[in-house]
Amino acid sequence: MSQPSLLVRHLTVPVRIGQVVVGGHAPIVVQSMTNTDTADPIRTAIQCAELAQAGSELVRITVNSLEAAQAVPEIRERLDKLGCQVPLIGDFHFNGHKLLSAVPECAAALAKYRINPGNVGRGKKRDEQFAQMIEFACRYDKPVRIGVNWGSLDQELLARKLDVNSQLAQPLALYEVMHEALIESALTSAAKAEEYGLPHNYIILSCKLSEVQGLIRAYRDLASRCDYPLHLGLTEAGMGSKGIVYSTAALSVLLQEGIGDTIRISLTPEPHAKREKEVIVGQEILQALGLRSFTPQVIACPGCGRTSSDYFQRLAEQIQTWLRAQMPVWRTQYAGVETMSVAVMGCVVNGPGESKHANIGISLPGSGEVPVAPVYEDGEKTVTLKGDKIAAEFQTLVEAYVQRTYRPAA
């Protein structure tokens, strides 16, 4: 049975983004980003809707050209017609001040702006162009994420800090100077945004690296020096298991310490693969830590010599896919169903025990065992299945369990 989280969150001010609240006592928010050409409003709206359907509570889109900025209001309109209210975040680099000025409809349609201090401008233009973007945020009542990234760190700030460091009797290592430059870039940019009129509770910070220990250290430092909500993410996490493992390693440490108010898993998708995988990984990290529940969890053994048949593996995959597909409807019908646990076990060693611990579980026969499959509900054996329709019968039992166990959603 799932247990409530005992973690204590780092206290931050709440920031409202459309109907979503980030920070304060609000649940940690999962977000994602499209990889379509924003200038193509149809494809971008479709992907935004797919990400929202998968559970992304905020969706970020690139706004890098006049055509992309002009497409944003249409994207918002298409999503509204689909009944998809997910807030859209505009990701700006280099020319955001020009695009917001040229297309005020874009400025109004977005729910939040993301500004990278390292990519706002150079020299005297940096402060001027940053101020312009903050002015638009104030004019249209939009919150801002100030997102520092070590791949695009403000080089002038870094150069100044290196000059000061070189004069020290015992200069710090380059990595130490870069770390402090990252934190200073985020905090000084936030202070400037407030000087330009953006309210304190309209600011979210991020400080991203692609190195796990560096990311953990940066966010620990940032959390100790401000009360802005923090957006967590290992930037450029990579592909496949590497991206998942590295992101999980970094974010789990911080979340366990109560640091982080919204997360994004920056996976590199396989060619032509669905973008929603990064949403599912983010949800599963939070659910594994007991911070939130999104979908019933399937408990399944890894298999061994006792389970030479792949039947239990196929059933586990089938049930997991089916449960996730039910959630958009179940979430509106059955309060708390997302906390349910379902066990699909492969032999008598741990099968009955794990099935008893789950809300509902099935213990399939291993090699050489009697070809029957006992089903347990809330610790008690209720029925024994056998024959070649076990999968369909168990799925029916799970659905019946949901219908009689979880009360109607409000």
TrEMBL record:
Keywords: 4Fe-4S, Iron, Iron-sulfur, Isoprene biosynthesis, Metal-binding, Oxidoreductase. This is 4-hydroxy-3-methylbut-2-en-1-yl diphosphate synthase (flavodoxin). Pathway: Isoprenoid biosynthesis; isopentenyl diphosphate biosynthesis via DXP pathway; isopentenyl diphosphate from 1-deoxy-D-xylulose 5-phosphate: step 5/6. The gene is ispG. NCBIfam families: ispG_gcpE, PRK00366.1. It is an enzyme of class 1 (oxidoreductase). InterPro entries: Dihydropteroate_synth-like_sf, IspG_bac, IspG_bac-typ, IspG_C, IspG_TIM, NO2/SO3_Rdtase_4Fe4S_sf. Its cofactor is [4Fe-4S] cluster. Gene3D superfamilies: Dihydropteroate synthase-like (3.20.20.20), Sulfite Reductase Hemoprotein, domain 1 (3.30.413.10). It catalyses: (2E)-4-hydroxy-3-methylbut-2-enyl diphosphate + oxidized [flavodoxin] + H2O + 2 H(+) = 2-C-methyl-D-erythritol 2,4-cyclic diphosphate + reduced [flavodoxin]. Converts 2C-methyl-D-erythritol 2,4-cyclodiphosphate (ME-2,4cPP) into 1-hydroxy-2-methyl-2-(E)-butenyl 4-diphosphate. Belongs to the IspG family. The keyword ATP-binding does not apply. It comes from Thiothrix eikelboomii. [4Fe-4S] cluster binds at residues 301, 304, 347, 354.
